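Homework help thread (please don't just give me the answer)

Our assignment gives two proteins as sequence + structure token strings and asks us to describe the second one. The first is just a warm-up. Here they are:
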Amino acid sequence: MQTQKQLLIAGLVALTVAAAQAAGDAKKIVVDGSTTVGPIAKAFAEYYMKAHPDVNITVSESGSGNGAKGIINGSIDVGTMSRAMKTEELDAAKGKKRNPVQHIVAFDGIAAVVHPSNPVKNLSKDQLRDIYTGEINNWKKVGGPDLKIVVISRDTNSGTYETFQEKVTKSERVTDRAEYVGSNGAVRQRVQSTPGAIGYVGLAFTEGVKALTVNEIEATTDNVISKKYPISRGLFMYTDGAPAAGTALADYVGLYKTADGKKLVGDQGYVPVQ
């Protein structure tokens, strides 16, 4: 039988282990969600870990929908999303005693992109909608060559897809001819290799493709800030509750408020919060 002293020692050891584990958890931040917000999350992680080598931040990009699910299920610390959480997601979180807190870390425009050889320079938002709903299926109908339009869309788990649906197609059914891909990079790659293709990506993913003006407005940082560009949106990080001040999580998520954080956002091709 254990003596009272042995029991006391065992209890102290258990408390020490628990404290160490808690401290270890505080030094690990798990991030998942949007491929659009991914470059910002990764830049923030690299910056923060360089200044705090004892902190480990992992960033995955499995889509905005999974960012929401991770917060709801408590499997991640930060959910990155290129759209706001939906009412049903917030309700599901509350049902699991979670309290999603939204942090707007940047702003972005969704650029309509085509192959560099395509002579078309501008589409109205209505023309863009008609292309994605299948009403327009040849470039000659919008002043281009006699060439079939290859429609490239983000997958339905994407926040970029949902924003495009909200602002362009108005929730009308996307044409059955559309090809769905899993990331901004995949859209860009498909458009780069296909002369007849059209896709849509965040501003940070327009290199190597041709970004069209929409309603004669360029997808630029200034036009997103002024809200002139018609397909603009906020970019978000979500946490379960407001992170406690002074913690690694609070410092990481709050980087967008700092001068260095704003520069990192701009360096990734996005619009810093003013």
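The one we have to describe:
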Amino acid sequence: MARLTVRVHPRAKRSAITGRFGDAWKLDLAAPPVDGKANDECVRFFAELARVPRSRITIMLGATSRTKVIEIEGVAQDQLIKLLG
């Protein structure tokens, strides 16, 4: 199981990891922070990145915040870091 802290930037042109923000990864999301759309896009992005079903992605902390802790079941921490670049 991998755990990752991200700092979200909603309403970007496309969803992508764009670097580091202190101890967190900066995540641009192509969704507005309205009605849970940004959280849905965050889950979709990490499911596609890690090649796991969306049901294995959990926003552990920060559902209403820009700083989020994401947990991904079925992926090792070092494997996730390699995927992030």
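TA reply:
I won't write it for you, but here's a hint about the kind of observation we're looking for: Residues 37-50 form the longest helix (14 residues).
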